[in-house]
């Protein structure tokens, strides 16, 4: 696997076995900010008038979504509980090659690099506002007593990883979302919309990140 530069100058990782990039080639950073941070977390915080949030990410990958979210929460005094599920975690030395340090506060980056490997084993206090845990397991093996406010669904595309987009997988993931919680993903397909409706979600088409016309945001009723 190797990092490649995307259209906005930020890097993404190309997974040759899967045949796909971890982020949009049209811009990794701007996709993460648009799809997950703005359309997901910030939408939920505004909707609930809250200064705390609990996020479950499906596909922790390079940690970009977490880093941008943690940076935003640190700057805006938002308490953040973050769990990322990752069956195949990247090695720490590969994470460093992302050069995502240029997009977040140096303290956020330094702390992330320091505790990344430890977060694969247990939940850690990232700073006084943020807790991070990386669940090193397949998504269908994940279990938790916690209920989350926002789900970042960032699996590889259905054409490359169809098992992640089945009604069964979506049902398993969405059981961990609190009523009123928000599910966001970069994709929007007829099958996805039907599955989310069947799970009791109110769905909406939101503007997509560069390179995509639309994306899905769904709220648990």
Features:
221 residues, 8-stranded mixed sheet, 11 strands, alpha/beta, 31% helix, globular, 3-stranded antiparallel sheet
**SSE order:** EEEHEHEHHEEEHEHEE
* Radius of gyration based on Cα positions: 16 Å
What is the averaged pLDDT score? 96
Largest sheet: 8 strands, mixed
Percent helix range = 25-40%
Termini Cα gap: 40 Å
Number of helices: 6
Uncertain residue ranges: none
Estimate what percentage of residues fall within beta strands.
Answer: 25-35%
**Shape, per Cα inertia axes:** globular
- Briefly note the structural class of the backbone: alpha/beta
Major sheet strand order: 6-7-5-4-8-9-11-10
Total number of beta strands? 11
Short characterization:
With 221 residues, the protein is an alpha/beta fold.
Describe, in plain words, how this protein is organized in 3D:
The mean pLDDT is 96. α2 links the parallel β4 (52-58) and β5 (79-85). This protein has 221 residues and is α/β, with parallel strands linked by helices. It is built from six helices and eleven strands. Strands 6-7-5-4-8-9-11-10 form an eight-stranded mixed β-sheet, sandwiched between helices. α1 (28-48) crosses α2 (64-75). The protein has helices at 28-48, 64-75, 92-96, 106-119, 167-174, 190-198, and strands spanning 2-5, 11-15, 20-21, 52-58, 79-85, 124-125, 130-135, 148-153, 177-185, 201-207, 214-220.
């Amino acid at each position: 696997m190797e990092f490649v530069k995307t259209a906005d100058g930020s890097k993404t990782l190309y997974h040759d076995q899967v045949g796909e990039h971890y982020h949009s080639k049209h811009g990794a950073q701007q996709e993460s900010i648009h799809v997950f941070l703005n359309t997901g977390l910030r939408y939920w915080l505004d909707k609930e008038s809250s200064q705390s949030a609990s996020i479950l990410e499906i596909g922790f990958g390079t940690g970009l979504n977490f880093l941008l979210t943690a940076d935003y929460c640190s700057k805006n005094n938002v308490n953040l509980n973050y769990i990322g599920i990752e069956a195949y975690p990247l090695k720490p030395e590969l994470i460093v090659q992302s050069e995502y340090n240029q997009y977040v506060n140096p303290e956020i980056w330094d702390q992330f690099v320091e505790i990344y490997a430890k977060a694969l084993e247990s939940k850690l206090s990232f700073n006084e506002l943020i807790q991070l845990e990386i669940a090193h397991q397949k998504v269908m093996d994940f279990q938790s007593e916690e209920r989350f406010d926002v789900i970042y669904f960032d699996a590889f595309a259905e054409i490359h990883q169809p098992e992640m987009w089945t009604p069964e997988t979506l049902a398993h993931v969405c059981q961990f979302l609190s009523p009123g919680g928000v599910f966001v993903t970069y994709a929007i397909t007829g099958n996805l919309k039907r599955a989310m409706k069947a799970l009791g979600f109110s769905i909406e088409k939101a503007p997509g990140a560069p390179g995509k016309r639309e994306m899905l945001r769904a709220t648990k009723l």
